[in-house]
Structures are given as C-alpha cells and as structure tokens.
Amino acid sequence: MQRKFNVVIERDSEGWLVASVPSLHGCHTQARSFDELDSRIREAILLCIEDADDFIPSEFVGVQQVAIEV
After folding, report:
1. Is the pLDDT of residue 60 over 90?
2. Beta strands in the chain (DSSP E)
3. What is the C-alpha to C-alpha distance for residues 44 and 69, in angstroms, rounded to an integer?
4. The whole model's pTM is what?
C-alpha cells in the first residue's frame, strides 16, 4: 500500500536542508542536497511508521508564514 506524507523543508543558518514530517512526531532529517534529503526523509518515514500499523495521517490544511517584530 502506498501512503503519502507532507514534508516541510527549510534551510538552516548553516545551509543544511532540514526536512520534517509534521504528522509523524520526531520524524526529521537533514542533508546538503535535495537528492540526498529525499533519500534520507524516505528512510526516516519508513523507520517512523515501521511499528505504527494503525497510523492515520492528519489532514493537510496549509502552510502560513507569520511576520512579527523582534
């Protein structure tokens, strides 16, 4: 069975690409290239759901940026 997961990708202050899966608590990884990041996040997802046979993904609603004065 194929499942789809939403992955959030950000670039940190040192230039690393950081990927996380909001519906899987603690599922994240980092890499220098998008190809490497894709491979690593797929592996991380498989590890996170390995023991979760009853996993039900949350519904993706959207992404919003919020600007604040700091």
Report:
1. no
2. 8-11, 17-20, 28-31
3. 35
4. 0.81
CA torsion sign for 59, 26, 31, 44 is negative
Calculate the alpha carbon distances from 19 to 1, 16, 68, 70 in Å. Answer: 23, 10, 24, 25
Q: How many CA atoms are closer than 13 Å to the CA of 16, on its beta-carbon side?
A: 9
Give every CB contact of residue 15 below 8 A, 6+ residues apart in sequence: 32
The first and second tokens of residue 2, run together, are 């194929």
Tell me if 49 sits within 8 A of 58, measured CB to CB: no
Query: Facing residues of 19 across strands?
Result: 9, 29
What is each CA distance from 63 to 28, 44, 49, in whole angstroms? Answer: 18, 22, 24
Asked if pLDDT for residue 50 goes beyond 90, the answer is no
